[in-house]
Amino acid sequence: MIELYLMRHGIAVEPGESDATTDAERQLSHTGRSRMEHEARGISMLDLRLDLILTSPLIRCRETAEIVAHQLDLKKRIKILDTLAPGRAFANGDGPNAEIFIDLGAWQFERALLVGHMPDLAEIASSLLSGNRHLNLDFRRGSICAIEVASLPPRGPGLLRWMMAPRQLRMIGRPRSR
Known about the structure:
Layout: E1 2-8, H1 30-45, E2 52-55, H2 59-72, E3 78-80, H3 99-105, E4 111-116, H4 120-130, E5 144-149, E6 159-164, H5 166-173
Parallel strand pairs: 1-4, 2-3, 2-4
Antiparallel strand pairs: 1-5, 5-6
Helix pairs in contact: 1-2, 1-5
């Protein structure tokens, strides 16, 4: 079995709020970075044991992946996957032959975190779970879900193990008082 963890990037600066001249250059906001650090602590408490972190090439996703990787001590296991960029996952069609699943199948891993964007993440999750992109899944910025599949490209429906909102991750990651 293959475990895929799909995560939406943290809160980014709004267009025009920074030096970023394109959407691809938008960074995590100060709030987004702070919240993501707390969420990453929550993720570390889940003991995911990831082999690899694959991220969209856009800056806000790379920053999100770096924060999580730092918390999980996986800095050297971050790789950029172009098909996680907005609009690229299903550029050549739906189903198991979608570009995202062909690209994922080329990597060797048992457990990987994919950091990406909406609506692409919801469509990837939907396709993994149902074979089509029509499930209505809500990935808030910083949300994560765990999906188990038998193979990549997928041959049959996957299993949604769990999904957590950013607030839940921050609660899990809070330091315990005595």
